[in-house]
Amino acid sequence: MNKEKDFLASYSIEDYERPSLTTDIACFRIQNSSEENYRKNPKTKLTLLLIKRKEHPFQGCWALPGGFLQPGETIEACALREIEEETAVKPVSIMPVAVFSETGRDPRGWIISNAYASIISDENISAVGGDDAADAKWFEVSFTEENEHAFHLKLTHGDISLCATLNETTTSFGVSRFEVVESSGFAFDHATIIATTLSAIRSRAKDFEYLFDFLPEKFTLTALQKVQETIMNIEVLPANFRRKVADYVEQTNDYTAGSGHRPAQLYCKRKKTNS
Amino acid sequence: MNKEKDFLASYSIEDYERPSLTTDIACFRIQNSSEENYRKNPKTKLTLLLIKRKEHPFQGCWALPGGFLQPGETIEACALREIEEETAVKPVSIMPVAVFSETGRDPRGWIISNAYASIISDENISAVGGDDAADAKWFEVSFTEENEHAFHLKLTHGDISLCATLNETTTSFGVSRFEVVESSGFAFDHATIIATTLSAIRSRAKDFEYLFDFLPEKFTLTALQKVQETIMNIEVLPANFRRKVADYVEQTNDYTAGSGHRPAQLYCKRKKTNS
DNA sequence: CAAATAGTGTCTCTAAGACAATATCAC
DNA sequence: GTGATATTGTCTTAGAGACACTATTTG
Description:
homodimer, alpha+beta, Nucleoside Triphosphate Pyrophosphohydrolase, 2 domains, 10-stranded mixed sheet, 3-stranded antiparallel sheet, 13 strands, DNA-binding
């Protein structure tokens, strides 16, 4: 037993080259557009939180919030800390997407990024802070397959527009990987990371379990439906959607009010799946 | 533009503390048991490849193959290199599962592990090398839910038996995380990593796309079915299984032979999903 | 009442499960 | 022929999609 102690005492981790580790968080938001008619439910659009880089490298470019892992914290804690520090947004939960470790992806050196995705809805963003950070903006997301394996990513916020053309290289285990054909305005390989996270959340938003992780505790079934529709870019009939989620949710005694139409009952995630 | 160059020239990555990065690979095998009756198809069992540690720490304990990331290689390349170096097994593909970054998980210091899972079937293992590595052994896997969130992991190879009791702490996005209640014989936190990879492959083996990634190019539908059944620990009727996979596979002109019963047609993965 | 969304009922069609029946090989 | 698996066909049932209909609120 002492031999192991001796070994550890003489072991020097500095003898080996080590990379730096960062997290990058693609935080998507189901954003309500303001509606002209007071009694209509707002239209929703998918937006992504980016920050304008104040420092080199890629000064002035737009990047995903994120930063270096600090000693004593887990990767997940680092991701949550960084997004809150940089944007004042506090996601309910984050989903691991992929690790980006290609050499040359960061001009500063050997830096490996753990990419996470998150989705928050307008219902809870007001409670946790919104556009407080000076250079953090929500960009409207458009990500479409132009033709076989060729995708176009467009992020817009007012006059600012970021574009990228990407090729889908591999799809393994539900997550596609991309390579940039051309891009403008993105820092590092963040166009690739954004495309990958979009692919990941789209392939997983079919599963209700995943959707709940991004919603506040109580929600209307219509809100839940909008989240899925906005992410997947599809439309489903409310009657069928309700039937499908019925086993995953539980009624609460609360209702919405003052919406100019029939109030909606609030639901919460069912604790145990009834078998 | 020169300002960025200047910045990079003065930037020293050594100013920040960095972790060491490793990969650990849980390589599962659909192993054919030898069958008494020559014309019966072999029974299959799920086994996991472990190596006995020759060095400190955890000398003599059983560990997942894996090792340190080297400069210039991606995490995936590192995982593939390590498993081949240590066990002479060459998986067709590997699936990222999770990153383990809890402090104290490795007594040598700040070491973060990227866990990967792979599945290979006996049909192609003979072609790529088997039990060549001296201390690499295939352990029969038993992983069962004893009661609510309490799991028991048992790995056996002949007289050797490794056990662990684990609690399921969180399930986010289809992958459960576990904490060890008690364990014996495992190096590091590898009992946790093994439980997590098992949970991940089980939740994903429902999707045929994922299964193909682990099979040789040509396979019988029965072999494909056995893979799913062995991983998921279920049984399905051949007739129904065939109908379900029909859209995912293409016939080839090859057949099995010499099996003591009707030959089976070989299939390959369909290149494009027909819509 | 009108406009809007919330929520229910029911019809159809497709996919999944159960099971019977046929095909083909090695001995 | 016998014993084994491969492969196909069909009946039944559960679930997804379409759509009509009722309920409830605010102005």
